[in-house]
Amino acid sequence: MLRTRTPTRDLGASDLDAALALCARNQADNCFAAARLLEGGLTSAGAHVVGVIESGELVSLCYVGANVVPVETSQRTRLVLGDRVRKWHRRAASFLGPAEQVLPLWELVESAWGSVRAVRASQPHLATTTPPSQFGIVADERVRLARPGEVDLVLPAAEHMFTHEIGYPPYRGSHRSYRTLLQRLIDQRHTYVIVERGRVIFKADLGSVALGCAQIQGVWVAPELRGAGLGTTAMAGVVENVLQDVAPMATLYVNHFNVAARATYERIGMQQIGTFATVLM
After folding, report:
1. Of the given ranges (20-24, 174-178, 247-251), which has the lowest mean pLDDT?
2. Averaged pLDDT for residues 204-226
3. Ramachandran region, residue 94 (left: φ > 0; alpha: ψ -120 to 50; beta: rest)
4. CA–CA distance, 211 with 86 (Å, rounded to integer)
5. How far apart are CA 254 and CA 87, in angstroms?
């Protein structure tokens, strides 16, 4: 019996337009993947992108770099993509994306990739195209872009946020590589802060910007100021700035158990458009 050839192939620079068109089928779900592609993910030595081709058309892909991200996969295409991902045995920080794609893909490859730190299977995916001011929310006027020389000011807040969110610190020993990552975000004008008395008391980043969508991440409020409304007015300031200056849609995803954060995002007009999942390695 003849076997049909698996309809997958590694994608390269010439596939960028097709890959972005695939991502554009759902700009909010695929903002992260599209941003990585635009940043050179199809030619980067640290990333691998495999696509599923049917009748000459790219119908699904999987980005594997620091994260594993399925894009527009179906039960059928996940089978062939899972076979490729399983064989790579590549280490990544997480699998992330729409829950209905991430969790079945993880089931296919779990035996090869080994143990995980946590599976966050229900993370509401929120979005808005409406400035919070239209809901009567007064934005904190202190919210501004971090300046290029402020990376060491941002570092303690970013480190605290990462450690408490993920469960381990963002670096061991020298913080040089993590500091470089923060500097890149600041240089891209993707980090918003409130600075008071020489320290950051609020921070939020744009982790991905692509396809008319900006994905907010790394939201942090100084612990002693939580519960006093700062998160609401500061996030309102971030979203106002993003919608005015960066993209017509702002998105983020949040752990379902983070009741306080979910209430904050609801107050500023963000609505659930789906559910994400993250498998933390």
Report:
1. 174-178
2. 97
3. beta
4. 30
5. 31
Query: Whose CA is closest to 194, among 121, 140, 270, 122?
Result: 140
Q: Report percent pLDDT > 70 for the chain.
A: 96
144/191 Cα distance (integer angstroms): 8
- What phi-psi label fits residue 167: left (phi over 0), alpha (psi between -120 and 50 degrees) or beta? left
- Residue 13's SS3 state is helix
Dump pLDDT digits (tens) for 87-127: 876 678 899 999 999 999 999 999 998 888 899 999 999 99
